[in-house]
Amino acid sequence: MSLMTEPVSFDSRQRLIRAAAEAFMEEGYRASIDRIAVRAGVARQTVYNHFPSKDDLFSEVARVAAGAILVSLDGDGIDLRARLLRFGAVLRQRLIGDEGLAMFRILSAEVPRFPALGVAYFDKGPGQVVRWLADFLGRAMNDGLLRRDDPQFVAELLLSMLECFDRTRRLFGAPLPAASGEAERVARIIDCFLRAYAPEHDPRNLS
Amino acid sequence: MSLMTEPVSFDSRQRLIRAAAEAFMEEGYRASIDRIAVRAGVARQTVYNHFPSKDDLFSEVARVAAGAILVSLDGDGIDLRARLLRFGAVLRQRLIGDEGLAMFRILSAEVPRFPALGVAYFDKGPGQVVRWLADFLGRAMNDGLLRRDDPQFVAELLLSMLECFDRTRRLFGAPLPAASGEAERVARIIDCFLRAYAPEHDPRNLS
DNA sequence: CTTGGATTAGACTGTACAGTCTAATCAGCC
DNA sequence: GGCTGATTAGACTGTACAGTCTAATCCAAG
Hints:
The structure is a homodimer.
Chain A: H1 12-27, H2 33-40, H3 44-50, H4 54-68, H5 80-96, H6 98-110, H7 115-124, H8 126-142, H9 151-163, H10 166-171, H11 182-196
Helix pairs in contact in A: 1-2, 1-4, 1-6, 4-7, 5-6, 5-11, 7-8, 8-9
Chain B binds a DNA duplex through residues 8-9, 12, 32-34, 42-46, 48-49, 53-54.
């Protein structure tokens, strides 16, 4: 998590942001400027040289964090299921990994005091993932690989399926369901999704 | 916010808990004992007559909140789809309604400081809903109304589908997808679920 | 009326913190 | 060397707050 010590004051700004992120993730907004400064190996005044206030530092941390949850859908040449499996596995790391979880905690808690920040974060982070996924799924529908439906809705549905209650569980510190490894869980979810969105070719269809 | 003035000191404990819940939902853990007391129409010392510390008051609020998110699956006599629709609609009120959202925000943020509380909340609230739903779905599987699978997994999957990214969206203050009313959204989700979990060979359970 | 438990306002303590200010120091660069 | 801008430690201010204490007051039940 922490970078090895670089030449002090190479770029204290980056180290500050990183240290602040860690501190906020551990302590929430309670993390004091002093502790953040110590963590960054920097004087308190230096913090204020870079950021006018704690709120500004926090906003900067959130901005960086938004980029950190992006998951691409790269993977030409492999089939739909394999691509979704890969996507799902990475997405779940982002959603229920320690770092993503901690960021989610503090951001969702503080958003009421930073409304604009909340929207911006959503838009550059989770919202962006939805857009990419919707785009991807829309193309798969056009290729006849998936049942036709509103891609945005389907993307959101798939994302929540992948989350599969595990984020809630982990947020409250409840143990994850004993069973089977991550990979298997992702596979079960994706297969369930593909069953629901199989192309309509076969005789019976509802709609 | 305030209930009509009851005979003062009828049961200041209940009024305190309610006031504290409102204050915590608005301000997070920042809500001060003083403001909570004012809100309850009570002296600060009275708060300490009932709860040894702010943390204890907070824990009590969380305990009450856990019970408030429960959703039953009552509804004998109507078919599976109708029951799920009803369940889904109520569940979504709990998940993405203002109150549930605010509680989720503060609880998930504070859980790291109250690990036992987090687990207890999960167990009496969300965890209980999962158990009920798993039980219900398990019975539907036995009745041949649903494809056979691990009921716990399916319950969790259905819950996350119902949440459908809307909680995340609302947590960050992003607008809900313009489209169609709640009822239609629930129906789309439930129908998608029923498609994925139609009995394997004889799909005969939609209205 | 009297008594006892709950309640009240308000003063008080100690702590944590954001943010400012200053004077000294360090770094690279001419 | 000497200049410049960033950095440093530490003192300082003002505020918010949890929690305690006290002395007065209310209220219900005997």
